[in-house]
Design goal:
Layout lengths: L27 H19 L3 H14 L4 H13 L3 H14 L4 H13 L3 H14 L4 H13 L3 H14 L4 H13 L3 H14 L4 H13 L3 H14 L4 H30 L4 H13 L3 H14 L4 H13 L3 H14 L4 H14 L2 H14 L4 H14 L2 H14 L4 H13 L3 H17 L7 H13 L3 H13 L4 H16 L1
């Protein structure tokens, strides 16, 4: 992922003001000459010539050591050369002369952040906010620092304020999008990147980040378009080329595979297996519409293939066309009435359509045909959980776990069922195992609901600190903290009775 851009620390044209605190007597001629050097530094800085600007500011400081704004400007120039310790020294001197300059605290916070003194940076952001709550730079950079601390939920909140203050700022929108990616919400990130592109159509980082987010969702057509646009806009950026190469390495295999199948189908247009295999590649992209199109052709060629109907039903479920999926699964069962797999698939579709009794019947028939079908046990367990038959749900999830102990949802749902009947100790053991599986899966998006459920379970057991820690994790991944806090407080009051 291309890193979110931050606003360049440019020298700003500021009027020199002599502060009373800690001031030194200087002549008017010295003051005027300092002003001349300062103004020259501003011009040089705006041209990107920070080395020359720094020389002018060094002279200005000697001539007028009473100006907070000269120290601030030199601090910014030093920061451009990554001289963050020196920049902080200048900001400290400026603060002695002008302690109510909110921008100084933001500048110093940025330098603290660059040398990983995040605690000091956060303290400066908080101090700046006490002075000025309408400073766009404050919230933009505060959010950026929070992302470096992986406190992305809090970062989003700061970017929200920055965007309220500057709705068309592409950098703030891009940074918030990147925080959403870290929270496992790539679709919301894509929306923010799109807004950034509309605000600044020449902003390469927004295109690149949006392309990477599309690639994370395996929407490769959109990924290619945005990655190529980023390269066009910033052809000298080595980071773009490096990251693009990584992404292309992942998605190029699928595209090459599609091209190979196209050539094979051109030679054998009546080979149903080729269409089915290309559909499988489209599913991985994922492009279920194209997969459905290929499977439809395959079914026309081979109308007695159970697997083709099941595969098409799978893609129809992915696009939430449950009625059409049901038609395909019925046809598959007409061809193979004793298929445990097909009955399990149809049970899941019955559930999505709200026909719980029919779903349970299909899951039970699937289990009778194959007692080791853990997905059928899980499916029936989910039905029992939904209708409030918690003991039978626990039994089904236990069987599913005994068959396959590596599925997070089985532990999570059994934990929910156990907690609902008041067995909080066993519920906590299940939820702990689910969290371990969640954390072990590097490709998994962390489950806010899982942490919220464990927070509630821990609160029932009187583990208040651990419950609050889980609530913080749940909030980080998108849970409604206010609602969760109300639930925890109600349990806390119940425990005291």
């Amino acid at each position: 992922m291309f890193p979110a851009a931050s606003i360049s620390v440019l020298l700003a044209a500021l009027l020199i003001v002599t502060a009373c605190t800690g001031s030194t007597e200087i002549s008017e001629s010295a003051r005027q000459l300092a002003q001349s050097h300062y103004e020259s530094a501003i011009e040089l800085g705006n041209e990107g010539r920070f080395d020359a600007a720094l020389i002018e500011l060094d002279q200005a400081v000697v001539l007028n050591p009473n100006s907070a704004l000269i120290y601030q400007a030199r601090g910014r120039a030093r920061a451009e050369f990554d001289q963050y310790e020196g920049a902080i020294e200048d900001y400290n001197k400026a603060m002695v002369l002008d302690s109510e300059n909110a921008g100084l605290y933001v500048d110093r916070a940025i330098s603290y952040s660059r040398i990983t003194k995040y605690k000091d940076a956060i303290a400066d952001y908080e101090q700046s906010e006490q002075i000025d709550q309408d400073d766009f730079r404050l919230y933009l950079n505060w959010g950026t620092t929070l992302t470096r601390l992986n406190r992305n939920y809090q970062a989003v909140k700061k970017f929200d304020i920055a965007i309220e203050l500057a709705p068309e700022n592409a950098v703030a929108l891009t940074n918030r999008g990147t925080a959403y990616v870290s929270l496992g919400q790539p679709r919301r990130a894509i929306q923010d990147y799109g807004e950034a592109i509309r605000a600044d159509p020449e902003y390469a980082e927004a295109y690149f980040n949006r392309g990477a987010a599309y690639a994370a969702l395996e929407l490769f057509d959109d990924a290619f378009i945005h990655l190529e646009k980023a390269v066009q806009l910033d052809p000298t950026n080595e980071k773009i080329f490096t990251d693009r190469g990584t992404i292309y390495g992942e998605i190029g295999i699928l595209y090459n595979s599609v091209k190979n199948y196209e050539a094979a189908i051109a030679r054998e247009p009546n080979n149903a297996k080729l269409y089915q295999e290309r559909a499988a590649v489209y599913k991985r992209m994922p492009n279920h519409e194209k997969a459905i199109r290929d499977l439809t052709v395959a079914i026309q060629i081979s109308p007695d293939s159970v697997g083709l109907f099941v595969d098409r039903a799978d893609s129809l479920v992915a696009i939430q066309d449950f009625e059409s999926a049901m038609i395909d699964l019925n046809q598959a069962l007409a061809l193979s009435p004793k298929s445990s797999r097909v009955l399990t698939e149809r049970g899941s579709v019955w559930r999505e359509l709200g026909y719980f009794d029919q779903a349970i019947v299909d899951f039970e028939d699937a289990i009778r045909l194959d007692s080791n079908n853990h997905e059928a046990h899980s499916g029936r367990g989910q039905m029992f959980l939904m209708i409030g038959d918690f003991n039978r749900a626990i039994a089904d999830y236990t069987t599913a776990i005994n068959i396959d102990s590596g599925v997070l949802e089985y532990y999570k749902n059994r934990g929910v069922a156990r907690g609902t009947i008041g067995d909080h100790q066993d519920a906590l053991r299940d939820l702990d195992m689910a969290v371990q599986l969640d954390e072990a899966d590097q490709d998994n998006i962390y489950d806010a609901d899982l942490f919220a459920t464990r927070a509630i379970t821990r609160m029932y057991l009187g583990m208040e600190d651990a419950a609050l820690a889980d609530a913080e994790e749940a909030e980080k991944y998108g849970a409604d903290r206010a609602q969760l806090n109300r639930s925890l407080m109600a349990i806390q009051q119940e425990n005291k009775k």
